[in-house]
Amino acid sequence: MELDERKMTILQAVVRNYLETGEPVGSRTISKYTDLNLSSATIRNEMADLEEMGYIVQPHTSAGRVPTDKGYRLYVNCMLSEKEKEVDEIKDVLLKKEEKLDDLLKQAAKVLAVNTNYATMISSPRYRENKLKFIQLSRVSDNQLLAVIVTEGNVIKNHLIETEDALDDETLLKLNLLMNTNLTGLSVEEINLPMVAVLKKQAGVHSDIVGNVLDAVCEAIHSDEDLEIYTSGANNILKYPELADRERAGELIHAFEEKEPLTELALGSLASQSTGIQVYIGDEAPIESLKDCSIVTATYELEDGIKGTIGIVGPKRMDYDKVVGTLKQIKNQLDDLYKKG
Amino acid sequence: MELDERKMTILQAVVRNYLETGEPVGSRTISKYTDLNLSSATIRNEMADLEEMGYIVQPHTSAGRVPTDKGYRLYVNCMLSEKEKEVDEIKDVLLKKEEKLDDLLKQAAKVLAVNTNYATMISSPRYRENKLKFIQLSRVSDNQLLAVIVTEGNVIKNHLIETEDALDDETLLKLNLLMNTNLTGLSVEEINLPMVAVLKKQAGVHSDIVGNVLDAVCEAIHSDEDLEIYTSGANNILKYPELADRERAGELIHAFEEKEPLTELALGSLASQSTGIQVYIGDEAPIESLKDCSIVTATYELEDGIKGTIGIVGPKRMDYDKVVGTLKQIKNQLDDLYKKG
DNA sequence: TATTAGCACTCACTGATATCGAGTGCTAAC
DNA sequence: GTTAGCACTCGATATCAGTGAGTGCTAATA
Q1: Residues paired with A284 in a beta bridge
Q2: Distance CA A75 to C1' D6 in A
Q3: How distant, in Å, are the alpha carbons of A49, A134, A244, B173, B194 from that of B176?
Q4: How many beta-carbon contacts under 8 Å exist across A and B?
Q5: Is A270 left (phi over 0), alpha (psi -120 to 50) or beta?
Q6: What is the pLDDT of residue A340?
Q7: A73 three-class SS
Q8: For residue A145, which of A133, A161, A132, A126 has the smallest C-alpha distance?
Q9: Which residues of A138-177 are buried (b: 16+ CB within 10 A; e: fewer)?
């Protein structure tokens, strides 16, 4: 059987209607809803076909139709390709400038949640291929050294090192010079074993300190695992009956609280390379516990290569149009605000 | 009317039974449950008295009794004063040692949540009366300075400062010396305006940098507002029908996600000076959105004056005995682990 | 005088039954 | 190919009687 234009129109009408009402939609509704000027009987026949093709189902005999994942997918694909062309009209979703990046991100998540009524998440940007910019070793007290490590993206890491006995100023200066001259501008991959050996040798009795600092450097740059995730509006989950039963809601809330699953999602979305919008419907979701939901993610990019993920989790009958629009807008704003700031 | 010992026994039995079952408890149940050897009729008379005194209520005529907030309060007071004496038996709630303090805290929240099946929170410790230990100003790039501020409790703060033009090494050294000699060992309260004026004067053209650093110092030490809150098991809320309706659960989940309300709670608990256990029942809660819950908090103390709050939020019919016991245990462990580490 | 047995009464809860109506598929007419 | 008409399905809602756990009150009892 073929999916002609009329069937497509009817499918779209079914999906739209279902998104609005959340109730199975019947033939009579569609007959009035569309401008096809067809009787409900005709629509019924078409709907029977659409069901056979797997785009819609009846929850039970004598009920209207509900889109399947496949139906949503088709709808979303069409919608997205239309959105491509269309210029995004300006909506009033606005971010204020914030001092700190993480405050800005928190705010973005919140604004998105309030505007869409879904649960939202945003990951801190991930600095790929990051290079060392600056190392500073200072004596904090007689037996404590502080290593401050700054990387290209201005990510700052602190690391306290316990020492046996106090180092004098001269030694400290020497160590600082040694490390900065040898390591600045390098990424972790470029710091290899021979280099480490040379450094340690030059450090003499203080080779353990160098080792310690290098470990901290490694951790600071290779910060895949400490991708920060900020969430907002997890309670919105409870607004959608199809997600609000104890079992499901519990899992979702848990995922939003623990954040590990969301980290996966963020990393996955980043890995996919696409800068655009990604939509996961039901089973397509990369996270087991979100498989009854739809997820829409976007990748924002603060500067070249400094990317993060922003996403929305909601019921499958999500207002995709609105979500995609709002997401794009926030994404653009994030970009702009940072460049200006 | 007087609350004699028998009434007290009956009240306790009612509360215990209700905690277990969550169902209104009737006179016959109590008659069997206690070893008072009284008929249900006698119990009924006593229960009528207890109701008149405001310790229990009937949800409706022809139902058993349920404790009121006042009833819970009496029960908890008795329980706590008994717990005082009793030596805590060793349970197997164990924390593993962690590298970083925040990992340890996260773990504590999680363990507590898993063990009790309630929602839990823990605040990072708050360093009161904190003194400055060390300031380091370094040049990161031509127009960026990095101020690293270390306080007595080894809390490290970083602050990036943009500069018009590059400072040479000598000036930098001078500024560092200036600030360290003048400020080390002082608390924010001790850094007054005349002192700031003198510093700025000595800094000459770089007075703006000094001002900038001082702001950062102030923020670093006076870190009331950035008390970190870690939560776990917020989804446990959904396990208790009396909290699981959309309205209430939404509010609770929201509180646990936004964390601001919990910060209030933590600060309040710290302010109360008590090192022991605090129990808030229903309306007693300092947070509006938690007024249908009970909250049990404890103050942990890593070192002298370095205190944080750990707390549990659950339904009013909470297993207070177990919660208090577990909380005490975790509290002790937190203390020990840190001292050893 | 305190306790208890007995009894009438209350009321949430359960399950059976009836009714309603939105929606379907099919057939026959247009 | 489209549509009107009709019988049929089945979830949702309302009604109602029956059940049982629980109460308060009264009168008998130790």
Answers
A1: none
A2: 35
A3: 79, 18, 57, 5, 19
A4: 87
A5: alpha
A6: 54
A7: helix
A8: A161
A9: bbbeeebbbbbbbbbbbbbbbbebebeeebeeebbebbbe
Calpha distance B77→B324 (Å, rounded): 12
pLDDT, tens only, B47-94: 999 999 999 999 999 999 999 999 999 999 999 998 777 766 666 777
* Cβ contact B138–A136 (<8 Å): yes
Residues in contact with strand C, defined as Cβ under 7 Å from any of its atoms: A 23-29, 40-41, 44, 47-48, 51, 58, 61-65; B 37-39, 41-42, 45, 60-63
Tokens read off for B39:
């008929």
The C-alpha atoms of residue B249 and residue B247 are separated, in whole angstroms, by 6
Residue closest to A261 by CA, chosen among A297, A288, A300 = A288
Which residues share a beta bridge with A120?
Answer: A232, A312
Angle at B21 between CA B17 and CA B22, to 5 degrees: 100
| Distance in angstroms: CA B61, C1' D16 | 22
Q: Which residues of B touch A142 (CB under 8 A)?
A: none
Query: A273 CA, D14 C1': separation in Å?
Result: 57
Question: Which two three-digit tokens encode residue B17?
Answer: 């039974």
Contact B158 A154 (CB under 8 A): no
Closest residue, chain A, to B147 (C-alpha): A148
**Quick one: tokens of B154?**
């080894």
Q: Which of B218, B131, B135 is nearest to B172 (CA)?
A: B135
- Any idea what the Cα angle at residue A212 is, between residues A206 and A214, rounded to 5°? 105
In the DSSP assignment, the letter for residue B223 is: T
Looking at residue B228, its amino acid is E
Three-state secondary structure call for residue B326: helix
Indicate the DSSP class of residue A97.
P
Length of chain A, in residues: 341
Beta-carbon contacts of A202 under 8 Å, excluding residues fewer than 6 positions away, are A178
- Residue A39, both tokens: 């009787």
Q: Supply the DSSP symbol for A72.
A: H
Q: Give contacts of A153 with chain B, Cβ < 8 Å.
A: none
The structure tokens listed for B45 are: 């008379």
Q: Which residue positions in chain A have pLDDT lower than 50?
A: 341
Q: pLDDT tens digits, residue range A219-247?
A: 776 655 568 999 999 999 999 999 998 88
DSSP string covering A30-50: HHHHSSS---HHHHHHHHHHH
CB contacts of A154 in chain B (<8 Å) are 140, 144, 160
Tokens of A64: 């209207």
